[in-house]
User: Fold these one by one.
Assistant:
Number 1:
Amino acid sequence: MPITRLLMGTLRFAHLTSSQMFDSKRFLQTTTRKPGVYQMFDAEGRILYVGKAKNLRNRLTSYFRASGLTAKTMALVQRIDSIEVTVTRSETEALVLEQSLIKSQRPTYNVMLKDDKGYPYIFVSDKDTFPRIALHRGAKRKKGQYFGPFPNASSVRDSLNFLQKTFRIRSCEDSVFRNRSRPCLQYQIQRCTAPCVDFIAEEDYRADVRHAEMFLTGRSDKIIRELADEMDRASRELEFEKAARLRDQISALRRLHADQVAERSSGDVDVLGIASQGGSSCVHILFIRQGRILGSRSYFPDERLGLSTAELLSAFIPQFYLGTQREVPRQILTSEPIEDLEPLQQALSEQSGREVAILHRLRGNRATWVDMARQAAEQNLGSRTAAQQKLQSRFESLQEALRLEQLPERLECFDISHSGGEATVASCVVFDTGGPVKSDYRRFNIENIQPGDDYAAMAQALKRRYTRLSSGEGRFPNILLIDGGKGQVRQAVDSLNELGVVGVQIVGVAKGTTRKAGFETLYVVAGNRELVLSADSPALHLIQQVRDEAHRFAITGHRQRRDKKRRESPLEGIPGVGPARRRALLRHFGGLQEIRRASVDEIAGVEGVSRKLAQDIYSALHSE
């Protein structure tokens, strides 16, 4: 019998069955025809699929018809043990609830985006006398203007590089800016006008910031006209250096403008093209802001129901935009017609606070853009398919080399990185038969060990990682690769034995005497054997790929940790020494080294520093 209860203003029906087979006929007799969301569960209570419908009974009936289902849909239906239904007031409300449940529950059979991070923006602060321009990712909590989104961080860096060379706006952190006593290297290479030491008037700096903002909003033509007028004025007043600088800015803007492909009419548009082949799909997006193509990005959604390209794109769009921090453009152009168009447009409009249109039948430049997106999707899907086939053959070769009964589906590799024992970081990277699983990568900041003790660092990282896996945080790998020789392998064996972890094949990867790729020795714990594969072995190539990725990931984490520590001024941790006093000390002595050399009396001679505080500063700087 179905159970009915009131939940958050909506009615939910849960069908509970004691038999192994789901009684669909009995369930459908009591199912409402109102709009809502349905959730399908297997016998163990795991969620299989979340969907929405304008008419719940009609939609759910389609799953249990006698014929016409695809093989993948039949596989889903055979696993259904119960279905829960949530009634909503409208189809739009059902769509929003569906996307919320998909993102929180991550059902097995729904379309999933593996990379769901927000896009980076260019941020220009507005609270400062001399505003800063920088890359920003995440919540928009800081006061200022955000320009974007950009498809990736490299696109932001390219734009920032151009803006710094052309308009010379500062990009340094506020803590660095406030404590400068002389110009930095950015001033020397003509990428900043050194507002930190008042080398530029506030009015002139604000003009440069305004021009940068105009460039970011697609008004390059207007900037060029303004700069040309200023150049003529400077020439008439015999300010030839200023005129030359303005001439260089105009030349840079004209070169960039000539290289860009832009629509004659301005506007914010996302263009989505889709391609499918052999059970895999690719959605390619062109990002167009203020009539300029900022860049593009490809997604390879994971779907298991054999959807058509139109159905897949219809499922992709709400998951991509709804319930995220992504900026929704005024228009979304698609290569396929979208199902349930009106409720989707309404949901996107409500989220963005303005009218959003999804268009399919197009002409002119917009039709060309859609063709570009579709062709890019086809090309990227073909390249990915070829790479996956190659990767599959490498996994099969590894299975044969290690004498495994089954094909390994998941590899993990650990590596350690430090500089003479400083800022030790361990990395863990994960690969499956589809390639790197970056969402499962982990880094571990190693603490409380003897500096430079790689064995202790490896043991700490392994225990922290596999303690979490044992508690159900993630999946165990089939193979654990350790970048190191017998000593590192022993640490791995002892750590896993201590935690009671079984069923994980441990393999050490030691460089040969020449330390060149292709001469590695593998220490295989199972069977206690050493293995040297030929340089052209696909299995060795896979191991090298995973090891090199672990090495890259560890080094990146180590450098970030080390650089962060080195950027911190020793003055920042001293009670009573805030930004104003740090600036006064640095201005008075010219740098940290001179402060270290100063006596207590000399430090107390700085305005605003008492003798007691001077003693605290002296003690803190000479405590090591």
Number 2:
Amino acid sequence: MSLDDDAREYHREDPPGKIEISTTKPTNTQRDLSLAYSPGVAAPCRDIDGDSEAAYEYTAKGNLVGVVSDGSAVLGLGDIGAQASKPVMEGKGVLFKRFADIDVFDVELDASDVDEFVGTVSAMEPTFGGINLEDIKAPECFEIEERLREEMSVPVFHDDQHGTAIISGAALLNAVDIAGKELDEVRVTFAGAGAAATATARFYVSLGVRPENIVMCDIDGVLTTERAEAGDLNEYNREFARDVPAGGLAEAMEGADVFVGLSAGGIVSQEMVRSMAEDPIIFAMANPDPEIGYEEAKEARDDTVIMATGRSDYPNQVNNVLGFPFIFRGALDARATEINEEMKRAAAHALADLAKQDVPDAVVKAYSDQPLQYGPDYVIPKPLDTRVLFEVSAAVAQAAINSGVARRDIDLETYHEQLEARVGKSLEMLRVVLNKAQNDPKRVVLAEGNDEKMIRAAARMESEGIATPLLVGDRGTIESVVETRGLDYDPRVVDPTADELEEYADRLHRLRRRKGLTRREAAELVRTDPNYLASVMVEEGDADAMLTGLTHHYPSALRPPLQVVGTKEDADYAAGVYMLTVADRVIFCADATVNRDPDADVLAEVARHTADLARRFNVDPRVAFLSYSDFGSVDNPGTRKPRDAARALRDDPAVEFPVDGEMQADTAVVEDVLADSYEFSELDGPANVLVFPNLEAGNVGYKLLQRLGDAEAVGPMLVGMDKPVHVIQRGDEVGDIVNLAAVAVVDAQQE
């Protein structure tokens, strides 16, 4: 089927459309319904009647945006009317929810004039925390936004104007920096003089471009003072009329440093590009076809052409989704009365700064492993980069506070954590450990220090104050990666080919000589096997923790630290634990990586270590030993093993957490099953530590939860070691490495 047919089927599939309303409070009992509606609802109504601000406390207003349109200027479709524009407005709601967790009511108004439109929208102020105007034709859109901003005390934002302005403004800040030019000196030519072009030109002036350096063209040519005096221009684009000779776009582009296209496809030739100043900046943003194609523009010049379009299949996509969800998020959370110029500039600068940072591997993968690094082909972040939420929303909220339009103060450190919680429970849980690590960073040795991911992870650990990383590897290789990636990082390197390692060889020999290891073999191992060198560094106290496994199979990566560091005095076994977050629940699964067929003593030991790990995440453990049997319903050696482990822990006075088993998985995690059928259980709620009967079950169980249950997994985290050692999975991303480093630091803090 064609794309059009696929889209029709996508929208038509039951239930039709793309959005729905869901409840956020229980509605299961008569009591629930009496709280949700009559008679209980009267209490919050009375409170709001006494103080209108209480609406933000008792209702969804603070997270609800109205996407409002008359369908008079739908992108690529024109004036199709209010009803036909509804799929677009629903789609806008999807983006608000997907990227910033903002709820939306789409409102399509069949309004005949500006007065009717403004009156209708302003009357809806009690419903919404903000208004996003969409697809309204010029020049009416200017008047509508101006009047609504004056009449309403919630943020009003016309995305078609300001979204493109802010995103391309961020791109401009970085493009000018890369091209070695000054913002107040560049000459800018606009193709297009409608709402988006006019708002973008105004915003560029707000960023520092001199108004006299902007030339704007419409379909009839350059906007000149002569045309303005003749009444050929509207009151909004008239401000960009210049006292220059009449001419077309070709003349306007001669010598220009920047071209901004917000008009129509195919109107710029390679000759026009060649007429521009050296190292030109070209933002050809007409959709779906830009004013000049990406390849054509690049091929027109021998110098550096920084090119951006509105398309996702080329570098530097100017996509409004980088702006409006996060701008509204910050504005709503600060309860701003408007979205002002300071907030828009803050958004642009935050986007520009983010593009200069190291790009997460997950983002690179999402864009087919494109090389994403600050430079001519990467001047703005990608929409799927979750950091945009944290950086832009926080910057906007702070700007609202600083400019005096916020009705609520925000602690930015706490706010950042609140935003992380909106992305997923795993980030919220990891923040607990990251904060602990930052309070007292420790030395973490990274055995695979030559690997680019390890080097980037080390740079992040240091910049975020999580750890002091020590990289085992070739000093020249590591420094070359730092330079190539443009990392602001001075690495600490342990180079096996250059540094003095005799002390480590002696120690390894003393530890393993009764296992048949000669002194010469020990010296060879610390020179050639970074896992042995890193393990001895930890054992000797020259590092506080160790990470490895990125380029090794799990068993081969685990063997050296087990031989050198060993397990705790009170432990005979190590185990691998995954933390899984499913919706708002957190579950620790053990053992999923180490012990193939543990007996009852091993299971009990694994449970103790995993409970300790849960506490490091500020989770009070409730431990369930899993089986295919419920509390003796099947009796054989396999079911007795978890039953005996549970009994041993219950009988141990040193164990301070609830534990029970054996039980089936649904019994362990479904509160109703546990309470209704097994009220005698020691668990006072659903289990959050699941101990699997063997390695096969553990590995299968956590992967099913991760893949079919859409659970987010953190780990594996190695427990039971005498000193902190974690073996990451092959192919893990930089963020995974940093997170496990934080866990290792917290482990070391407790040593």
Number 3:
Amino acid sequence: MKKISKIICVITVLLLGSGCKKYLDVAPDNTGTLEYAFRNRNEAENYLFTCYATLQQLYDATANPGFVTSGEIVYPNNLTKHPLDETGFALLRGTQNSSNPGLNFWDGENHGQAIFRSIRRCNIMLENIDKPADLSTSERKRWTAEVKFLKAYYHYYLARMYGPIPLIKTNLDITASTEEIKVKRATVDETFAYIVSLLDEAAPDLPSVISNQVQELGRITKPIALSIKAEVLATAASPLFNGNPDYVSLKNKDGVALFPATYDANKWKLAADAAKAAITECEGAGMRLYNFIAPANITVLPDSLRKVLTLQNAVTEKWELNTELIWALNPTFPFQGYATPRLTQKGVVNIFSNPSLFAVPIAVQEMFYSDKGVPINEDKTFDYAGRYSIKTGDNASRFYVANGYSTIKEHFNREPRMYANIGFDGGIWFGNGKVNLTDLYHVEARGIESFAGPKDINTLNITGYWPKKLVNYLSVYDDGFQEISYRLPMMRLAGLYLLYAECANEVDGPAGDATTYTDRVRTRAGLPGVVTAWSTYSNNPNKPATKDGMRQIIHQERRIELCFEAQSGWDLRRWKELQSVLSQPIQGWNLYETQPANYYQPRTLFTSVFGVRNYLWPIKDQDLIVNPNLVQNSYW
């Protein structure tokens, strides 16, 4: 056993550039052996949960590149108090480097998880799963499938960040030579093929539904495995990895090119087929798009608010009640207080119970459609040029904008998802303890005297917009913060529909399933179908008729539907669109002004630092010294 521990430490040093760490977390002191860990069913189950441990740590959105580098939410960089790790948010300001990378998931440093260590845990489980004599055949097959999924997902997480990675198919034998230990990076195509092969092996032996929801919700199912397979294949087919000219010169030390030199259209076909199979499995398991069912204390609910609550609760509903939830992690989302504005005088008094620091840039608010279902800069009926002029809320808009409150025209006549996603000055905030339609809260954010306005540097929303979607409407911020917890989805059926629509468009163009599945999501959001909306209201009516035009529509649809869910950052990377999005200055409103005409003046907070090299993470310089067979990502 000492020899095994020694060789694992050597691998850790060579691959990760870090010291040997205890990772047999399930064994008590002085008995950290594989024989103990797999001596019976109970101990093996403990080790299975150790394989899940790193996955569960991924619940922390502030360490998720898809959340912190998407430009959807920004965080101040001048706080005197630091209630959370700011490493991820700081990357937008140009702090990334190769000497000490932020969100380092290769080594498990700087708010990153040690993913390679997690893969080795999975290998140990797979190598020893046959040892417990009291483990039933059915359980052994299921646990093996779960661990294969986890191993695949850990490889996938690294591949999204780093591109080509070393494939840790098995743990090295104690007789391995020094050269064998000095692993090199597999090609992009080899990396994705291996991930898919593990998912294919796992899926047949996973349950379609969780029968014991009290004890097993959060464990891997067949719908999860098939949905992630579709996402993996769509990622492999996307411009970042499919014939990307930016990385044609990236090669291993032996001269092997790590990225494919040419575009392969068949990759989209594989992704489309996988997405359709995942949809069939999910729907067969009873999943459907979520619709809000009002509790008994809400006796009257207008359609406009019902739609908002449907869209908001598609994320914040309890996972056992959410009909479209494919996958969520067990830990609950811990940042509702960062996404909630102060709505009451007691909230101001208890300001430190709710920092309200998650700020949404103006550009993200403007990404949402008009109520006609097209972009606001394309809508022939929308006064885009006059969008910052002042308008007062009236009776017709009272469930979206407070009656009699002055805000800007841009906040009127927008799609329901905008009102479900974003809290804004004058915007209705249904819930927070109030459900009486004649006495609802609204956000007041202008100047220091307003409840939600700037009070001090540590509780300041720097844009004047809040990610409302991340707050359960039943959570109450008044005399302290009483939170109704939820789990942030990793995958929803609406996202899977749009993934399939994207792949179908790349294969067959906009006719057929590309439009059909996009319209399923739009219909639930209260919008007309794509063709109807563009032909009737857009100044570019033929946009949905071409593959390029439909691609733009689906991309924006995914960004809107999955906003704030740690998905858009990954999408924008694989599409190679993040650089364009972040090239625009990050702007907010003139927070300290009280008069609407003065408050609603866009001000630039900062300009993001993001170039071609930032699409992939750098490998730490020290790792390249320890293992000379590793090569650095391009431009680092």
